[in-house]
């Protein structure tokens, strides 16, 4: 994902800064502010020095709290994690593993991963792509979750239903969150005491095997015909992106296709929730970018915690309260493996796209005014998903590509109405 | 061979429109620009026949083009408006005096009546004097707050039904960006300056040029040979708007439609309905529209008169509470409110009139200032 690549590069300097930070604030660095015992290893905000163990607890708790507070994931629900290999999504994977301890009733043990590969349009050669994929697969296999690899080339085979809003599955968990949790616990107790059911681990391994066999690229590589088809697809994809003139439009195209691909994977594999690893910093950039692209009406949908525009598949963003810096520290301290992949805007000029201009602006302002990212993020929190002038009963007309409610009805908006008097 | 005009197909093109990318000749551009402004006025139903419209005239390009266009379109399409020029003299030497001269020249040519209101006459402080007390920063906060009221008062004085200002698409886009960066929900809801027809002040306002790109306004003024004044205000370089402005220019370079897109986004933002919004009330001292017990101008003036110019800027609620209780401030606290170090503390605390006695007033005061950003 574009997201993660940009952040990836910041890991170096951050880890270098760590010692300097602590040395320059001896007063707050003497003891961890949480346990008051261990010596701290990093300062999150000014004055908040954490030791390694407390930082980990703080970090994991934040993830769990995020899911708990929003009551996003129902027990036993199948969750798909969208991974790019970058810091944020890799960190998200680790968090899911942390909270997936089997004794917890709200654990996410039905999680699985979709890893997308878009090297073709980001200027990676075939050899480099193979290398990246290999690294990814190592990480995926080590996670022991079932996984799917999605190549951007597959967008040419997507069904047209991907452009449709599917109504929410009525047989799904309609009752309250609390009831669902209780029901799940009851069911678990029955399984423990009753008939010999397959242990969780075995089911997972079975699932993993199944999904491994599902991956089309795996055995396909041996087949020359399939390889030729893949090459044609790649060629098609490169031509598609080549026909788009500006980098801004390319970024938007890639984002749309990527979302469609993830949605397709979720639908075909029967997942009702997809987790995306966008951090607070990334979301601040996205808010301002989309604002500049005229997507003011759908900002809340694009950046909110839960995004139900597709109807049957809900996208959630559990990493949205972590800053890029926190994530970088976490990955560094706890050895979270990440994969570096170039993005569309890697090595592009500073003013090449709206995305890039905004990103540079936000990072620059953040260096001067450390509250920039959080202020923008909180502004985004105050936005509403439903347009102000929409009638609640009517189903809104939706955009074909992003499935957000159309905002192009140039009727009389409230500001255009004649002035009183 | 130079490109030919894409509208008439005969004359050589004189420009490529930033907004649409079309190559147009001079005559076609002027016609298109005038027609678009007319459409904006008609579609937005900005004016009614017989209304008196005060044009906020600074002498700069936007207001000069606006005054020219309104006069032209009024004649051409018969809006039936009585047009006036209204200028505010902030008292900034080397800037406003020269721009007011441009307004006067325009007045002579156009024959529109002109009225000038000055900060000195309205508030007893000129911007230059304020800046001497305040230092280089935050001047735009004072100037902006004061001008908003000054325009309203001038318009009331002249019996105007409406104020038309020369805000262009770039200004609107900057404001959207700025309010978003500051998290100013109140202003975002009010349409981020996208021309609330109801207006915030006493006199309704409109922005007939709010869909016009700054570049096109400059080109229009250039092709029409309009005489305007173009120098940046001497206090502007320190303003926070500069960040938004620089960003907008880069965005426009990357994708010209970004300016219009930002305006559209600003109009279409929908805020959560459960947010606590500042309620519209009136200032207890001057009766002007305010979301707080005192309007911002009165708070700023109070600060100036007490020798604590930063009283109304940033978060000094605790200090304001202290003042309200009649407690003396320490030297350090006075310094934080911008008092000069060498200045002797005032002999006695001047009571705040009826405000000094009211317990609640200052306590409730919560000015929505910039979030640690200089505005």
Automatic annotation (TrEMBL), chain A:
<dbReference type="GO" id="GO:0016779">
    <property type="term" value="F:nucleotidyltransferase activity"/>
</dbReference>
<dbReference type="GO" id="GO:0016783">
    <property type="term" value="F:sulfurtransferase activity"/>
</dbReference>
<dbReference type="GO" id="GO:0000049">
    <property type="term" value="F:tRNA binding"/>
</dbReference>
<dbReference type="GO" id="GO:0005829">
    <property type="term" value="C:cytosol"/>
</dbReference>
<dbReference type="InterPro" id="IPR014729">
    <property type="entry name" value="Rossmann-like_a/b/a_fold"/>
</dbReference>
<dbReference type="InterPro" id="IPR019407">
    <property type="entry name" value="CTU2"/>
</dbReference>
<comment type="function">
    <text>Plays a central role in 2-thiolation of mcm(5)S(2)U at tRNA wobble positions of tRNA(Lys), tRNA(Glu) and tRNA(Gln). May act by forming a heterodimer with CTU1/ATPBD3 that ligates sulfur from thiocarboxylated URM1 onto the uridine of tRNAs at wobble position.</text>
</comment>
<dbReference type="GO" id="GO:0032447">
    <property type="term" value="P:protein urmylation"/>
</dbReference>
<dbReference type="GO" id="GO:0002143">
    <property type="term" value="P:tRNA wobble position uridine thiolation"/>
</dbReference>
<dbReference type="Pfam" id="PF10288">
    <property type="entry name" value="CTU2"/>
</dbReference>
<protein>
    <recommendedName>
        <fullName>Cytoplasmic tRNA 2-thiolation protein 2</fullName>
    </recommendedName>
</protein>
<keyword id="KW-0819">tRNA processing</keyword>
<keyword id="KW-0963">Cytoplasm</keyword>
<comment type="pathway">
    <text>tRNA modification; 5-methoxycarbonylmethyl-2-thiouridine-tRNA biosynthesis.</text>
</comment>
<dbReference type="GO" id="GO:0032991">
    <property type="term" value="C:protein-containing complex"/>
</dbReference>
<comment type="similarity">
    <text>Belongs to the CTU2/NCS2 family.</text>
</comment>
From TrEMBL, chain B:
<keyword id="KW-0819">tRNA processing</keyword>
<dbReference type="GO" id="GO:0005524">
    <property type="term" value="F:ATP binding"/>
</dbReference>
<feature type="binding site">
    <location>
        <position position="62"/>
    </location>
    <ligand>
        <name>ATP</name>
    </ligand>
</feature>
<dbReference type="InterPro" id="IPR056369">
    <property type="entry name" value="CTU1-like_ATP-bd"/>
</dbReference>
<feature type="binding site">
    <location>
        <position position="166"/>
    </location>
    <ligand>
        <name>ATP</name>
    </ligand>
</feature>
<dbReference type="Pfam" id="PF16503">
    <property type="entry name" value="zn-ribbon_14"/>
</dbReference>
<keyword id="KW-0067">ATP-binding</keyword>
<keyword id="KW-0963">Cytoplasm</keyword>
<feature type="binding site">
    <location>
        <begin position="56"/>
        <end position="58"/>
    </location>
    <ligand>
        <name>ATP</name>
    </ligand>
</feature>
<feature type="domain" description="tRNA(Ile)-lysidine/2-thiocytidine synthase N-terminal">
    <location>
        <begin position="53"/>
        <end position="232"/>
    </location>
</feature>
<dbReference type="InterPro" id="IPR032442">
    <property type="entry name" value="CTU1_C"/>
</dbReference>
<feature type="domain" description="Cytoplasmic tRNA 2-thiolation protein 1 C-terminal">
    <location>
        <begin position="281"/>
        <end position="311"/>
    </location>
</feature>
<keyword id="KW-0808">Transferase</keyword>
<dbReference type="Pfam" id="PF01171">
    <property type="entry name" value="ATP_bind_3"/>
</dbReference>
<dbReference type="InterPro" id="IPR011063">
    <property type="entry name" value="TilS/TtcA_N"/>
</dbReference>
<keyword id="KW-0547">Nucleotide-binding</keyword>
<keyword id="KW-0694">RNA-binding</keyword>
<dbReference type="InterPro" id="IPR014729">
    <property type="entry name" value="Rossmann-like_a/b/a_fold"/>
</dbReference>
<protein>
    <recommendedName>
        <fullName>Cytoplasmic tRNA 2-thiolation protein 1</fullName>
        <ecNumber>2.7.7.-</ecNumber>
    </recommendedName>
</protein>
<comment type="similarity">
    <text>Belongs to the TtcA family. CTU1/NCS6/ATPBD3 subfamily.</text>
</comment>
<dbReference type="GO" id="GO:0005739">
    <property type="term" value="C:mitochondrion"/>
</dbReference>
<feature type="binding site">
    <location>
        <position position="88"/>
    </location>
    <ligand>
        <name>ATP</name>
    </ligand>
</feature>
